[in-house]
Amino acid sequence: MEREIIQTLDGSTTIHLKEWDECYHSKHGAIQEAQHVFIQNGLSLFPNQSVSILEIGFGTGLNAFITFLESSKLNQSINYVGVEAYPVNASEVLAMNYVDELNASHQQIIFEQMHEGKWNEQFELASHFILTKRKQFFDEIDDFQQFDLIYFDAFGYRVQPELWSTAIFKKMYEALRPGGKLVTYAARGVVKRSMIEVGFTVEKLPGPPGKREMFRASKG
Known about the structure:
Blueprint: E1 3-7, E2 13-17, E3 22-23, H1 30-40, E4 50-56, H2 62-73, E5 77-84, H3 90-95, H4 98-101, H5 108-116, E6 122-126, E7 129-135, E8 147-152, H6 166-175, E9 176-184, H7 189-197, E10 201-206, E11 213-218
Parallel strand pairs: 4-5, 4-8, 5-7, 8-9
Antiparallel strand pairs: 1-2, 2-3, 6-7, 9-11, 10-11
Helix pairs in contact: 1-2, 6-7
């Protein structure tokens, strides 16, 4: 599938899949979307504590990198697991401008290490941040009560509805500890119904720039 690097409206880059007309991040602002959906409405709910995070769609590493930057401000110790079936290649990683756009040149090495680290092996990026990248299809996930927070950042329902199925959300529900949260940019009725069917309580929240709404799901 043909891929190209494009600039989003907040100046940050993303990968565009031409055949699907689908992007890894919002065209309205890759960084703004990540900060709004995953940090403001997810990570910030867990200040001053250890947090175990599962990311569905590691992709460019943007969500992981922003989480690393924010975790120090929130005094968090992070165990981060990113799942990705089709890792981005080195040239695409080099084309991402996240370090500059986030004014994080002092953490350039961290962004590089996130991508250079071996797949399916746990490694320490800092004393407070452990990363594991799992090369895995989402339907192969079988974790049980391992995570406090899930970043659900799969490609959209329009192009891959199977990733938003009841079967997948059942796996997400089982992977979360009681009281855990799942946040996603999505806000389709069919997605909400699948979440509720497996046991989630679903909130509809204001969405990031360019999107009216998003969901946050909670496990009782």
